[in-house]
Write a structure and sequence with these properties.
The protein folds into 3 domains: 166 residues, no CATH class; 87 residues, Signal transduction histidine kinase, dimerisation/phosphotransfer (DHp) domain (Helix Hairpins, Orthogonal Bundle); 147 residues, 2-Layer Sandwich (Heat Shock Protein 90), CATH 3.30.565.10. The protein is elongated and about 130 Å long. It is an alpha+beta fold and 468 residues long. Strand 11 and strand 12 form a beta hairpin.
Length: 468
């Protein structure tokens, strides 16, 4: 076996490269956004002390106490970096400061004025250039006094630089540990997780019981996957062999049964004809003939289903006037089913290229299904239309309640809603299965639905014009 590159090693290298790349990206992003984040922390601390002054009764607090509290909150070490001004006023004049902010407190050039966003709190902010230094000033108007704080911009920048240095130092210590843990996790994940390749996933998605001949190529794959692909291909080969054997058995058995059943049917009908009319023997032979006819129907359906499974359900295409066929079917049903109210909404002159015999069988099966699983004195509504290049045909009828599990199995072969198989409702459980195969052969689909009022609707849709 020729040397192949290791998928495990390649995956591990990919993981490590990704983690290292994310390490540097995080480092750069942290350096870029740290200054903004630290400024946000400072602004939150500043806002918290101002809001505290507004909500608390600070009338008896001296400027020195207020300044000390301010220094502790915003974490400024030097007392000279903060100026504190306090002016008393009457409660009736709380909304109007007696001094002009900020000029009367700190003479200099006003660089900017701004509101804090707290309209009800009476907080204003300004930036002032005074004696060659920049000050960030905030005015807080309480019911009994006006408090103005001024912070030296140099002190604010110093806070930013100190916190940023601490953060960067922490990153330098923690990041290598995180990187090492990430590499270890990458190795463990690479060792334990060898996910299937996209090629195998696509092969599984496209797997069809009608064609199990497809195989997945192991050329140019990693050596860890070659054995897995070989096992997968061997499984497909065994499935194909078993499926072909089962399909061939069904087809051969149906072929072999048709001739003797036809001969037996003929002999029984002749004996019935020769028997005394109304005699017990004639009645018993009639029951035998009915069962033979039932076996013949099952055999024919099994033959068609086996052909569909093998992809050999050939259509003898011809243009069929579906409107006329359905009108005739509805007229016959009205004649023989007097207890049911049969209505139809059939669009005229809808032509469809299909196999006439198979499509007629689909119509008969759908109508028979609506008749069998109906209610006493119930109804059947048939709708046929051509919309957007699609043939749409539906049979609706009231029914007994059907569970979600039964709804999911209605197209399974030999499945009957009447699970007891007591023959109170005649049928084999092959009708809808065969209808679905005929729908697929016509590039269409068959759907089964039941609403809250227990009205069953079986709908067939197919393109009116076939693709080349």
């Amino acid at each position: 076996m020729k040397n192949r590159r290791s998928f495990r090693l390649r995956t591990f290298i990919t993981f490590v490269a990704y983690i290292i790349a994310m390490y540097f990206v995080n480092y750069l992003l942290a350096a870029f956004f740290s200054h903004l984040e630290i400024r946000n922390i400072y602004e939150k601390n500043l806002l918290s002390i101002h809001q505290k002054w507004l909500s608390a009764d600070e009338k008896n607090s001296s400027p020195t106490a207020l300044k000390s509290e301010f220094l502790d909150t915003v974490r400024i070490a030097k007392s000279d970096d903060v100026l504190m001004f306090v002016s008393e006023h009457e409660a009736s004049s709380a909304t109007t400061a007696k001094k002009k902010f900020p000029e009367d407190y700190l003479p200099g050039e006003v660089i900017a004025r701004r509101k804090s966003g707290q309209s009800a709190s009476q907080i204003q902010q300004a930036t002032v250039l005074s004696k060659g230094m920049t000050w960030e000033m905030t005015e807080v108007i309480t019911p009994t006094r006006t408090i103005v704080s001024a912070v030296n911009k140099i002190a604010i920048d110093r806070i930013y630089d100190e916190l940023l240095a601490i953060r960067q130092q922490t990153i330098k210590i923690v990041a290598p540990i995180v990187l090492l843990i990430g590499i270890l996790i990458s190795w463990l994940m690479t060792t334990k997780m060898l996910a299937p390749t996209r090629k195998i996933q696509v092969a599984l998605q496209n797997l069809d019981s009608r064609d199990l001949s497809s195989r997945v190529s192991s050329e140019s794959e990693d050596r860890e996957f070659v054995e897995f692909i070989d096992v997968f291909n061997n499984m497909l080969a065994k499935l194909e062999k078993n499926f072909l054997q089962a399909s061939r058995f069904s087809s051969d058995a149906a072929h072999e049964l048709r001739t003797p059943l036809t001969i037996i049917q003929g002999h029984v009908e002749r004996v019935i004809y020769e028997s005394e009319p109304g005699s017990r023997m004639q009645m018993q032979l009639t029951l035998v003939a009915d069962e033979i006819q039932r076996l013949t129907s099952i055999t024919q359906k099994l033959l068609l289903l086996s052909q569909a499974d093998a992809g050999r359900l050939q259509l003898d295409l011809e243009s069929l006037n579906v409107s006329d066929s359905l009108d005739e079917l509805a007229s016959d049903a009205k004649m023989f089913e007097s207890q049911l109210r049969i209505t139809s909404k059939i669009e005229k002159k809808i032509l469809f290229d299909t196999d006439k015999n198979l499509f007629q069988q689909l119509l008969n099966n759908l109508l028979t299904n609506a008749l069998k699983y109906n209610l006493p004195n119930g109804w059947i509504h048939i709708v046929l239309s051509a919309q957007d290049g699609q043939l749409k045909l539906s049979f609706s009828n009231p029914s007994l309640p059907i569970s979600s599990a039964a709804k999911a199995q209605v197209f399974e072969r030999f499945y009957r809603v009447d699970s007891s198989h007591n023959r109170e409702v005649d049928g084999t459980g092959l009708g809808l299965s065969l209808c679905r195969e005929i729908a697929l052969a016509n590039s269409g689909k068959l759907s089964f639905d039941i609403d809250e009022a227990n009205v069953v609707t079986v709908e067939f849709t197919a393109p009116l014009k076939r693709a080349a």
